[in-house]
Every structure is written in structure tokens, then in C-alpha cells.
Amino acid sequence: MGHNLGERVFLLQVPMKEFFKISEVANEQYREGIEITQRKLDPVHANKLALYILKGLISSAINFKKAQKAPVVPALLDIQENLGRQPYLSLQPIVVNIRDIGYRGGKLRAVRVLSQEDSTTACFKVYLAQNNILWVIDGQHRREGMRLVFEFLEHVLRHHAYPKKKSLYTPLDGHLDLNPDELQAWQTVLESTKTFCTVSVEVHLGLDVDEERQLFHDLNNLGKKVDKNLALKFDSSNPINLFIKEELIDQLGIKVSDIEQKDWSKDDGSVLLKDMSAINAILLLNKTNISTASPEVKDKFPVAKQFWESVKAIDGFGEDRGKEKTVAMQPVVLKALAKLVFDFKFARKLPENANHLYHILLDGISDLDFSHNNKIWQYYEMPENERDRLFPGLKAYLPSEETGNRDLGGFNAGLMRFGAKHNDIFPIIGDMIRYQLRLPSRHTASI
Question: Which Pfam family, an example, fits this chain (predicted)?
């Protein structure tokens, strides 16, 4: 028992399966007649947590076997490797309330348990009736993640096969039927959820609806969001993040920083970590962030490493005051290059000569003029006749100016500074790179 800011609370360790059984969530999707104290469930967020919980349960099952001094099922280690290892896994405590038990739990039956050594209070033995539900205040998505995991385990153990659709886990080779080792592994995982793997629960007592809502607000709005650069720096679970740290930083020596330097005269040639993450998300996933990266993305890492080796060869890249020497130090330009690699190497519909085009791009990166003085970056600031004179045929590579804003940025004091709307700008920079390397236009049927 404790007193959180003076309010009596119970601190419990409950087996995960048991917690799910005795808890509920009071949100709009639950049922009529229940006071709503929760936001709507976000299925996408819950599914991400389900995958995290599954990874944790695999780790728990391995530790469970070790605690029993029993050999670890080999399939558990294979599944762990396929899901992606990380140094540590843990769920934050779930906050709940037991309703209708009197003010601050006055109607609960509890017995003080004394220490045999000095007769001090060791703990309290609390008796809960079947109608004493743990109403989740903070943790509904974690609880929903548990439900998805239990559904997955039930399907696997009942059918001896992985689900054909929307499976939390499918082996890398794609097989669906379980072999004996896998069956034993998943049985161990389920057993762990019933005994070994626990959930930390902070139980508030007898809160009314207004108090529940206030606590929900405070827990979800008073915390400070972690800076994205710091989050990426600390995260060792995402395979692309590991690739950045182990391959690009440690092996290739590309400088990456978690502190943004806005003064270009003080630039040390580093790429901001969150920008490096976004560039590799486009390169490997064709997405704006790396959150959905699965272990299979490792198969693309050799291509990604080739790409960064070519980028590193660009004049001025990675040097002190690099942003003043080359536009290639600006993330939006690197995103444009990354998207071209994806288009020629990983896109679903590749042209027949995609590999040839990829090598033209790769070989051309270090030879292209990425200086600030390359007039092509100022194309939209030029009059029509000058555009046609300097860059004949470029217009066919670019999207129509009637379909959107074409403000790429501005040229001032000898420096081309691209704008902040990267998602609008990098495809156009990519078109300009295609033009300079005589690669096919993305606006024609051939690509």
C-alpha cells in the first residue's frame, strides 16, 4: 500500500493473463450504461503495443525457462531474432480504479499482514469480490494489446498454425504450419503469461467518475513528450535505427548529431539524427518515419550502405561548414536521392532496366553538381525564356505549376536554402536530379 500525493493506493503485481481477466475499460466503444472516462481506442496504436508485448513475452518465456533451470526451446530464440532483439523490455504501470467500494476504499475488506521479525506491517491482504472490476484509467491501449496477443496465442495453439491474415508474427520464410519446436515455444509463452510475466498495477480506490476523468487528464496531459532526436538516440530496438548507429556512424564514419545547428557557419558536417531517420525511412520503406520497420528490412541494408557511400563522396559532404559548401547537406536533398533509390530498387513496379537505372544514379551522385551555384535549384525563380535556354526539356520532368506551390526556397548571399515543406519539395528535387542524369521522368509511362 502507498499514498500517491497523499491518496491511498494499492501497488500490485498481477500475472498478465489474470490482469486482463479482472479489468475493463470504460470508453465509448465498451457498452451503454457505463460512465465514459476514456478516449476512443486507437487500433493502430494498440497493434503496435501488441507487437511490443509479444516481443516481451518471448523474452519472458526465455527467462521463465532459465528460472526453472530448464533448457530454452530453440524456436523461442529464433522467434526472438525474427521479431527483433532489443536490450530491455518493460511495460509501464497501468493505473486503475475500483469503483463502488466507498470513499477511498472504505468498504473493502483488508487484513494487515505483519512481519514475523519485528511485527511491522509487511503488506495488506485485500479481498476483492467478483464485481470489483479494475477499471483502467491509464493503459487501455496496453490492455487492448494484451487482448490481441492472447487472441494470437489462442489461434496458434488451437490450430497449430499462424493466422493467414493480420498475424502479429509470421516466420520470415512465410510458413504457416507450426513445427513441434514452435508449438512448444508458444505453449511456454502462454504459460508465462499466467504465472511468470506480471503487470505492475497502481490501484486507486473508490474514485467517482469526475475523479477518474481528472486523473486520466493529468496522466495524459502533464507529461512532457520526449524529443525525437533523444528518443532515436536511446532506441536500440528498431532495425533501421541500429543500421544508422552500427553501419553509417560506426563503420562509414558519417557524422550524426542529436542537436540541431541552425547557424550554417558553425556547421560541423553532421546530419541531424531525426533527419537521418527520415531519410532512411524513405530509402528503405518509402515512408516518412521508421516506426513500421520490421526485421526483414535488413535485406535492404547492402543497398542502403551503397547509397550512403555514394553520398559520402559528394564534394563538401560531412565537412566543417558543409551546408555552405553543398546543398547535399540539406536533408530535403538527401530525401530526394533516397526516394530515387527506392524507385529504382525497391518499388513494387520496377521498370525492366531498373538495375541499370539504379547504377546510373549511384555512379552519378558523386559527379552531380550539388553546389549552391547550380542554377537548376533556382529554376522556379527564373523567367520562362531563361528556363528554356538553360534547361531545355526540364519542364517535361516537372509537375505542372498549376497543381501546387512550387516555392522550393530561396537563393541569398550565395546560398540556396530549401524550404521547410520537405514532402512537397523533395519529389521536385528528385525530378531535377533525374533530368541531370538523363533518367526517365516519373511523369511518363516508362517509370
Answer: DndB
Tell me, letter by letter, the H, E, C secondary structure of the chain: CEEECCEEEEEEEEEHHHHHHHEEECCCCCCCCCCCCCCCCCHHHHHHHHHHHHHHHHHHHHHHHHHCCCCCCHHHHHHHHHHCCCCCCCCCCEEEEECCCCHHHCCCEEEEEECCCCCCEEEEEEECCCCCCEEEEECHHHHHHHHHHHHHHHHHHHHCECCCCCCCCCCCCCCCECCHHHHHHHHHHHHHHHCCCEEEEEEEECCCHHHHHHHHHHHHHCCCCCCHHHHHHHCCCCHHHHHHHHHHHCCCCCCEECCCCCCHHHCCCCEEHHHHHHHHHHHHHCCCCCCCCCHHHHHHHHHHHHHHHHHHCCCCCCCCCHHHHCHHHCHHHHHHHHHHHHHHHCCCCCCCCHHHHHHHHHHHHCCCCCCCCCHHHHHHHCCHHHHHHHCCCHHHHCCCHHHCCCCCEEEECCEEEECCCHHHHHHHHHHHHHHHHCCCCCCCCCC
Among 166-170, 245-249, 275-279, 334-338, name the one with the lowest average pLDDT. 166-170
pLDDT at residue 446, as a whole number? 42
Tens digit of each residue's pLDDT (9 = 90 or more) over 270-291: 999 999 999 999 999 999 999 8
